[in-house]
Amino acid sequence: MEAGFSEIRNELQSRDALWRRIELECQQLHTELLKIRDYKDMQEIQIERQSSCVQLNEQLGNKNTGLLLLAQSQECQQEELNKIRNYVYQEEQSHRSEQERMKTEISDLIEELHQKEITIATIMEKASLLERQLKMELEIKDKLLAKQQLLDFQYKVMKSENTQLKEVV
Question: Does the keyword Coiled coil apply (predicted)?
Fold first, then answer.
């Protein structure tokens, strides 16, 4: 029996050693599995990061395209703004020239009006003087006419007296 025991003990020890090796291998496999999982997780994270990077790069590319379009649009708007500024500047210059021309024209017209007013005032003074002279001449002529009529009357009276005297004589 002892030999059977010994054999069973050896068999058990052998199986125990085998079991320990299997457990050790299981632990090693489990460790490797954890490493593989960690590696796989790392790869998944890297893939996600790469995917994120690709998405970010695409978004960045889209934004760069948008910025380029915006820059081109801004250049066009800047050109349009410059055209408008030039047009406004030209219009302002034209308006200023027109204002200066109008100011000069108004100044000339005011000077001409002033000269005409002076001329009118001079003519009015002369007219007033001529009117006074005419009134004086009219008064003189009226006096002379009255004298003439008086003389005519006296002549007629004398003529009639003269005719009577001739008849008497």
Answer: yes
